[in-house]
């Protein structure tokens, strides 16, 4: 049977995201309700997790579910950069503002017009990074207005803040290098720290860190080519840089620039576990696809010694929380097992999504045909009454000796025409009834197939739960190894 808790999880998520409240609020409400659900059904935690992953996957997002004693944290990242919930929300907003949309299409929009769009994105969508906001807006505009993917029209004529970072980035980079060189003497005052934290109050820092990390792996560091030493040298720099740039958009001009840099460095250190787990999963994904560089990167963590200059470093071993070491052979086996299971589940999920679309169409068609049938039945009823009235009048007319043959003929033709029209209406009702029967049969068949697919997915998840748990242990173990070797430069 399909897991009721799986369906209940999806129902909670759908309800939280149904209305047009800010995505952050939807996610927070969902997290609270799902945490309570897990507390009530701890033995079905895996089913709840899988439902969460599938829900966000259908909306173009990958989800990272982190369960703590007091709360459930759902961190999302954009998986489908061409079709996701952010793009859809922006499209809906644009379509609801016809004049605004027309000004975009005609390329007559002013900076004030774009300010309205930016305000919507800032208040309704949970996007922390400016580059991601711009990308989502550009994609939505391209879809709605036919603007090319790399069209600079919007950003050229939009708000200035999208262009203000050229000089600032150079300045910030120099500050970060200076702070790194003098890390032993850098001190952040409590006053500055509290001021910055107050300004960041309400910002989802974990989500910001996730988006920054993904941005680094997309634009700054290519894991399919980079070696471990270059990675260690550059990753923390980029992580600090991106948060530092983010702070530039906040009202902190009265805080010393170096102090802001030190705060960013401390913040990166606090969230290293998130960043390196994302890196680990990206490396494992590349390794699963046969990327040789990613494989070499992972094999670096073998417990051996390495000399750099006059120093000798001990490389960490990839060891999970159960104390089990992971060799490259075991890693590849784990990845193969996970990929095979995911492929089967994704195929079933893809077919299930297709059925959902067809069911929606069938339900709409049944509703329309049923309404048409009801309308025709009412017409038949009207013509039946009209026929009886006219037939009675014809009998009276025929019985009257004074009635002319022409009047009898005219009324007879009128009765015959009513009978013909009624017959045609009945034929239409019969045709619609047959079509409704076919649609109802198709609906039953699709629902049965959908139930079967959900059972298959649920069975596959339960049967292969250990494989997913092994992958989680592996990704955490690799993240720990990367973290423990970060100073090997």
Summarize the SSE layout with pairings:
Layout: H1 4-18, H2 23-40, H3 45-58, E1 61-67, E2 72-78, H4 85-96, H5 98-105, H6 111-124, H7 130-145, H8 153-157, H9 165-181, H10 190-199, H11 205-220, H12 228-248, H13 257-270, H14 272-288, H15 292-299, E3 305-308, E4 311-314, H16 328-399, H17 405-463, H18 465-484
Antiparallel strand pairs: 1-2, 3-4
Helix pairs in contact: 1-2, 1-3, 4-7, 9-12, 9-13, 11-12, 11-14, 12-13, 14-15, 14-16, 14-18, 16-17, 16-18
Question: If you had to describe this structure to a student in words, what would you say it looks like?
Answer:
The protein is mainly alpha-helical. The protein has four domains: 4-78, no CATH class; 85-162, no CATH class; 167-290, no CATH class; 338-470, Helix Hairpins. It contains 18 helices and four strands. It has helices spanning 4-18, 23-40, 45-58, 85-96, 98-105, 111-124, 130-145, 153-157, 165-181, 190-199, 205-220, 228-248, 257-270, 272-288, 292-299, 328-399, 405-463, 465-484; strands spanning 61-67, 72-78, 305-308, 311-314. The chain has a two-stranded antiparallel ribbon. It has a two-stranded antiparallel ribbon with strand order 3-4. Helix 9 crosses helix 12 (228-248) and helix 14 crosses helix 16. It starts with a helix and ends in a 5-residue tail after the last helix. The model is unreliable at 149-154 and 156-167 (pLDDT under 50).
């Amino acid at each position: 049977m399909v897991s009721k808790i799986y369906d209940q999880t999806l129902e909670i998520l759908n309800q939280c995201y149904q209305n047009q409240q800010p995505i952050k609020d939807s996610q927070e409400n969902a997290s609270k309700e799902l945490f309570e659900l897990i507390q009530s059904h701890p033995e079905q935690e895996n089913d709840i997790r899988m439902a969460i992953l599938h829900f966000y996957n259908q909306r173009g997002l990958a989800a990272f579910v982190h369960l703590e004693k007091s709360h459930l944290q759902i961190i999302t990242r954009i998986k489908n950069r061409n079709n996701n919930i952010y793009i859809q929300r922006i499209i809906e907003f644009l379509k609801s503002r016809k004049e605004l949309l027309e000004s975009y299409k005609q390329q007559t929009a002013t900076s004030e017009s774009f300010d309205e769009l930016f305000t919507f994105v800032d208040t309704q969508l949970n996007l922390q990074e400016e580059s991601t906001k711009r990308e989502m807006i550009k994609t939505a505009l391209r879809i709605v207005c036919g603007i090319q993917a790399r069209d600079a029209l919007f950003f050229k004529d939009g708000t200035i803040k999208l262009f203000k970072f050229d000089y600032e980035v150079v300045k910030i980079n120099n500050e970060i290098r200076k702070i790194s060189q003098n890390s032993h003497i850098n001190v952040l005052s409590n006053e500055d720290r509290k001021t910055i934290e107050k300004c960041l109050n309400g910002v989802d820092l974990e989500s910001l860190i996730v988006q920054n990390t993904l941005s680094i792996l997309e634009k700054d560091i290519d894991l399919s080519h980079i070696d471990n030493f270059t990675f260690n040298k550059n990753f923390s720099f980029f992580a600090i840089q991106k948060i530092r740039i983010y702070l530039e958009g906040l009202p902190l001009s009265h805080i010393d620039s170096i102090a802001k840099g030190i705060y960013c460095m401390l913040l990166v250190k606090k969230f290293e576990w998130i960043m390196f787990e994302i890196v680990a999963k990206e490396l494992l994904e590349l390794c699963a696809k046969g990327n040789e560089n990613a494989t070499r990167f992972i094999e670096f963590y073998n417990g051996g010694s390495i000399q750099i200059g006059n120093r000798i470093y001990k490389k960490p071993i990839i060891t999970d929380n159960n104390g089990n070491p992971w060799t490259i052979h075991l890693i590849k086996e784990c990845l193969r097992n996970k990929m095979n299971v995911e492929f089967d589940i994704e195929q079933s999920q893809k077919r299930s999504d297709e059925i959902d679309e067809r069911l929606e169409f069938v339900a709409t068609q049944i509703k329309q045909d049923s309404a048409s049938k009801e309308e025709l039945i009412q017409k038949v009823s009207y013509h039946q009454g009209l026929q009886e009235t006219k037939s009675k009048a014809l009998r009276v007319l025929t019985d009257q000796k004074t009635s002319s043959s022409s009047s009898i003929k005219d009324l007879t033709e009128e009765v015959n025409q009513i009978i013909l029209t009624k017959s045609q209406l009945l034929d239409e009702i019969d045709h619609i009834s047959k079509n409704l029967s076919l649609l109802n049969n198709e609906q039953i068949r699709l629902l049965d197939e959908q139930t079967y697919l959900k059972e298959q997915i649920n069975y596959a998840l339960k049967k292969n739960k250990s494989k997913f748990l092994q992958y989680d242990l592996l990704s955490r173990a690799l993240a720990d190894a990367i973290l423990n070797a970060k100073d090997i430069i």
